[in-house]
Design a protein that fits this description.
The chain is an alpha/beta fold. Helix content is 39%, strand content 17%. It folds into two domains: 86 residues, Rossmann fold; 134 residues, 3-Layer(aba) Sandwich (Rossmann fold). The protein has ten helices and eleven strands. The structure holds guanine. Guanine (GUN) binds next to strand 4.
Length: 293
């Protein structure tokens, strides 16, 4: 059994990016510049955005943080997006979700120029991904594909079960793992809340990608020996022994699944740290105009 240490892998990739930025600086080429738009005071969003900006600084990118009160109107936010689309100095940007209730998330996502959509949320990038064309991959699927690749995990011909059908994790993962490439060439099943006899599906799976948002949902008796388990869940469960009053657990019951798995990602320290690296890699591609000219 091997634990896939996402934190360590993310550090290795950040070092590689840093070296690339140094090369770009020496060659007097464009230094990647990411902008992040943060609306309101959602503590989780604040912490994610801070970590994204800190990571940019760490690898030598330029970064711009635009913070606005949650009283901002949809029109005002659309104006900010328009400015960022046009600002030549900015290679890519993200608008942190969720947005306040009076703003339509999808309207904002659609307003972002796909060339600068380093979150990979715009339907143009999703469509390009689905057709195997160059695109920005959304952060979590990109991070998972990188983990599978760097750990040389066999995927061809394997039964892969994706738990959860969200637009940003489950659905893209099912497409990526079924495409004719490595990692990929899997026979994919996409399971969700209406799936009947889920245990029959988990027991058949060689690879499980768990992204359903239910703490400890997948247990040891639901998986077969040698399974590869990628746990995307980040759930807070009450824990009075912790100073902050909670601890983080995944969608997988780590203690019972780990002894049966050939590879498993922990929570925290698995998929989570890889998502920021994906954003950095997309921003690098944007600055080099690798995907769109
Ligand atoms: N909210 C939670 N995850 C993400 C993400 O990856 N990008 C953006 N923009 N918002 C998020």
């Amino acid at each position: 059994m091997a634990i896939i240490d996402g934190k360590a892998l993310a550090e290795i990739i950040k070092l590689e990016i840093r070296e690339e930025v140094l090369r770009l600086k020496e060659a007097k080429q464009n230094i990647p510049h990411l902008a992040a738009v943060l609306i309101g005071n959602n503590p989780a969003s604040e912490s994610y955005v801070k970590s994204k900006v800190r990571s940019c600084e760490h690898v030598g990118y330029e970064s711009t943080l635009i913070r606005k009160d949650d009283s901002i109107t949809e029109e005002e936010l659309l104006d900010i997006v328009k400015d960022l689309n046009e600002e030549e100095d900015i290679d890519g940007f993200i608008v942190q979700l969720p947005l306040p209730d009076h703003i339509d998330d999808s309207k904002i996502t659609l307003a972002i120029d796909p060339k600068k959509d380093v979150d990979g949320f715009h339907p143009v990038n999703f469509g390009r991904m689905a057709q195997g064309l160059p695109c920005y991959l959304p952060a979590t699927p990109f991070g998972i594909m990188t983990m599978l690749e760097r750990h040389k995990i066999e995927t061809e011909g394997k039964h892969c079960l994706v738990l959860g059908r969200s637009n940003i994790v489950g659905s893209p993962m099912s497409i990526l793992l079924s495409r004719k490439a490595y990692p990929g060439n899997c026979t994919v099943t996409l399971a969700h809340s209406r799936t009947k006899d889920l245990t029959a599906e988990t027991l058949r799976a060689d690879i499980i990608i768990a992204a359903i948002g239910i703490p400890n949902f997948v247990s040891g008796d639901m998986v077969k020996e040698g399974v590869v388990v990628i746990d995307v869940g980040i759930n807070r469960v009450e824990d009075s022994s912790k100073r902050r009053g909670y601890r983080l657990v995944g969608d997988v019951d780590y203690d019972s699944v780990m002894p049966k798995a050939s590879f498993i990602t922990p929570v925290p320290g698995g998929v989570g740290p890889m998502t920021v690296t994906s954003l950095l890699l997309n921003t690098l591609r944007a600055s080099k105009k690798e995907i769109y000219t």
